[in-house]
Amino acid sequence: MTMTSPTQQARPGAAARNEDRAVLDVRGLWKVFGPRPDRVVGTPLAELSRSELRARTGCVTAVRDVSFTVRPQEVFVVMGLSGSGKSTLVRCLTRLVEPTAGEVLFDGEDIRKAGDRQLRELRRHRFAMVFQNFGLLPHRRVLDNVAYGLEIRGMRKEARYERAREMVELVGLSGSENSYPDQLSGGMQQRVGLARALAVDPDVLFFDEPFSALDPLIRRDMQNEVIRLHREVGKTMIFITHDLSEALKLGDRILIMRDGELVQMGTPDEVVGAPVDDYVREFVSDVPRSNVLTTRWIMRPPRPDEPLDGPEAGPDVVVRDVVHTVLRATRPVKVVEGGELLGVVTAEEVLGVLAEPSPHGTSGGSAGSPPDATSGESAEPSPEGASAGSADSSSEGASGQPAEPSPDATSGGPGGPGEPGGSAEFPRSAGSPGSGGQG
Ligand SMILES: Nc1ncnc2c1ncn2[C@@H]1O[C@H](COP(=O)(O)OP(=O)(O)OP(=O)(O)O)[C@@H](O)[C@H]1O
Ligand SMILES: [Mg+2]
Q: Which class in CATH covers the domain with range 290-355?
């Protein structure tokens, strides 16, 4: 993600350059909850709809044959309705939830084959997690919360406090080191969560709807904060959200889920410019396309008779930011990357985007429908602490952090918070009969 300003949707350079490499390579991943889940994958039972399978066997397919790769330094967003399997998918990647089938290759090695010890190492050193409900230890000061993962690792007190202080400063909380979590606002608490995750210098940061409990303005601040931190520390990030505007703002690529399945995966301009079906089309319909589609997306090959001495633009500039250049130019604007001419953009392409009708009122806003994903959470014996073996294990989550106190318990009040001004948020549960655990 190399956005030049938080509001610009310029496409990434870093992730694009890493296209052939994978930090995480997920292949044919399944997670079936319920009795004897093994009998489902690879049998006719797997073909049943969620509700049929549940009725017949008591099992829920939370993740269904999902494959994708995450590239170094990429911000990879997972989106979908409540109950579509986002949290389960992401938890399978660190084995906070045990996958039922498939492979999860991290730096080429299958995490599913890791032993307890290796897994603990991975969670303490390579991965870190930021939760929606912050997961802070209430009786510890900010500094101790931030240093927690380092303490678990056995780092000396002085060294870990030094590192923790740096992180507190990085997230803009200097001065609050000695406060307790309940003395901080929600936004500040989540900054502590961010600092704690960054303190362990992980390879991959996982975020499970970290900002959905925050009010819209604070939430926007925090999104900008993530963008800034990503620019500064360049970590690979996997980010779950309900909020399309958040996904578009943060994501290099977005994976959209429905009923456990991958529906579409692509860059923001692919998702907005070419939604694969009505499900995706409906929730991108309110997005101002000129804020998302890039010159790369709208360019075309030059015609033989066209002059090629016009102004230049990069391929990752969004239409909104190139409109004036294009409309003022008397020649086609050349889309150039690394000295190479990729295509041209003229008023015709730009106006095509601006004039595109953008149907309203089709997405968002199904307040009142509670999230359904919590219904079965307790069916599996506390996955969070399962493989940790230290004295702190009962409270240890990924990377030695305190485990999320109650996973998903707060995933939004009715409807969940949204941004003002028609932010397209996935309607929670509504309109998706098969979307989850309400049986
Ligand atoms: N431990 C569990 N036992 C049984 N079923 C579960 C368990 N965890 C999740 N599920 C079911 O798996 C499906 C996917 O749940 P998951 O929590 O991954 O969805 P989600 O997309 O993260 O939803 P939300 O947006 O509400 O957080 C749901 O139908 C849920 O009820
Ligand atoms: Mg979830």
A: alpha beta
Q: Give the integer Cα–Cα distance in Å for 190 and 221.
A: 11
Which residues fall inside 5 Å of ion ligand 2, going by CB?
A: 87
Centroid of ligand 2 to alpha carbon of 87 (angstroms): 4
| Closest by Cα among 290, 277, 348 to 317 | 290
For the chain, 439 residues long, give each residue's pLDDT as a single digit of tens.
443 333 333 434 444 556 678 999 999 999 999 999 988 999 999 999 889 999 999 999 999 999 999 999 999 999 998 999 999 999 999 999 999 999 999 998 999 999 999 999 998 889 998 888 778 999 999 999 999 999 988 999 999 999 999 999 988 899 999 999 999 988 899 899 999 999 999 999 999 998 888 888 888 888 998 998 898 888 999 999 988 889 999 999 999 999 999 999 999 999 999 999 999 998 888 888 999 999 999 999 999 999 999 999 999 999 999 999 999 999 999 999 999 999 999 999 999 988 875 544 333 333 333 333 333 333 333 333 333 223 333 334 444 444 444 333 333 333 333 333 333 444 433 333 333 333 2
Which atom, in ligand 1's list, is nearest to the CA of 435?
29
Are residues 379 and 89 in contact, defined by beta-carbon separation less than 8 angstroms?
A: no
**Residue 318: helix, strand or coil by DSSP?**
strand
226: which 2 tokens? 């993530």
Cα atoms in the 13 Å half-sphere on the side-chain side of 425: 25
Q: How far apart are CA 360 and CA 357, in angstroms?
A: 9
Return the ligand 1 atom nearest residue 84 CA.
21
Distance in angstroms (rounded) separating the CA atoms of residues 359 and 145:
46
Q: Does the Cβ of 82 fall within 6 Å of ligand 1?
A: yes
Tokens encoding 356: 């595109």
CA distances from 261 to 70, 201, 311 (A): 17, 32, 44
